[in-house]
C-alpha cells in the first residue's frame, strides 16, 4: 500500500494500535525520502529548524535514543538529551514534575521512554501543545521500532501484504511484538508467534495471529523470522528452566533456518543475547541477517515521524 493521506491525525505518536493503514503507509513513504537524505554527503535538511526536541529517556537505550538524536540533527532541530541518571530523578523527583520543568523550557516535541505502560499517553494528555513520541513504554508499545521493522521488510520484499512474519521469543513482556502485531495485521501480513507457554499471553490469538509452541513449525514457510530478546529485567525470574534449555528449544540456528523460505530475512530489534535467542553465525550472516539494516532504517523512519508531527504540521499552520 502507498500513502493516500498527507498528514497524521494526532499530534502524538503513542502507539501503532491507534494508527490507520494510510498513516502507516504515509510514514513509510516519507521515510523513503529521508533515507536518501542520510545517504548524501551533507546529511541535513532544514525541516525542523528552530524547533526544540527533548529526548526524555528514563530507561536504558542505545538504538532508539541515538537514532532519534541523529534524526533530529539531520532535520536541523535543537536537541536536548535527558536521562534519569545524573538528574534530580535520582533525588526522587517524579516523572510529572520532571516533565513539567522540561516543558517550562518550551520544547516543541518530547521523545520519551519510561518503564510504565501508558506514561507517554499521560504526558500527551497533560501537554496539549507538545507532540509526544513514545520511544517505548514498559511492555506496552514501541511504535517506531515496528515502523522501522516494516520499512525494512517492505524495502527488502517489496510489500507487506501477504508476507509471512514469524516472531519468536518473549512475547509476554515485549513491547516490540505488540507494536509489530498491530502494524503487520493492519497491513495484511500473516503473523505467527512462537514462544514457550510461560512467555505467551493468553488470548493473544484474538489479535489475529497464529500461535504455535514449536520453533520448527513457526519457521516453516516464513519470509521473515524476527527474534526477540528475553526481557530478564521485566520477568523478575526466569520463565523457563535455564537459558541453555531455552536456546535448545527456541534459539535460532542455521540448521533451524533451513525450514524457512529461500531468501528469508532474519530480524532482531536489539540488543541481542547471542547464544540465547540467536546463534552468532546467524545474526552475523549477511545472507540472512538485516539486523544492522534495521538500525540504519531507524534513522530515516524517525526523521519521518518527527517531520510529520513537527515539520509538516508547522508548515501547514
Ligand atoms: N530496539 C531498541 O529499542 O533498542 P534500544 O533499547 O537500544 O533503544
Describe the model.
The chain folds into two domains: 21-142 and 296-316, Aspartate/ornithine carbamoyltransferase (Rossmann fold, 3-Layer(aba) Sandwich); 143-294, Aspartate/ornithine carbamoyltransferase (Rossmann fold). The mean pLDDT is 95. By secondary structure, the protein is α/β, with parallel strands linked by helices. The chain is globular and about 55 Å long. The strands form two sheets. It has a five-stranded parallel sheet. A four-stranded parallel sheet has the order 2-1-3-4, sandwiched between helices. The protein is built from twelve helices and nine strands. Strand 5 (164-168), helix 6 (175-186) and strand 6 (190-194) form a beta-alpha-beta unit. Bound molecules: phosphoric acid mono(formamide)ester. The site of phosphoric acid mono(formamide)ester (CP) has 10 residues, from helix 2.
Class of the largest domain, according to the CATH hierarchy?
Answer: Alpha Beta
In what order do the strands lie side by side in the largest sheet? 7-6-5-8-9
Helix content: 25-40%
Written as H for each helix and E for each strand, in order along the chain, the element string is: HEHEHEHEHEHEEHEHHHEHH
Q: What percentage of the residues does DSSP assign to strands (E)?
A: 5-15%
Give the overall shape, derived from the CA principal axes.
Answer: globular
Structural class: alpha/beta
Number of helices: 12
The CATH homologous superfamily of the largest domain is called: Aspartate/ornithine carbamoyltransferase
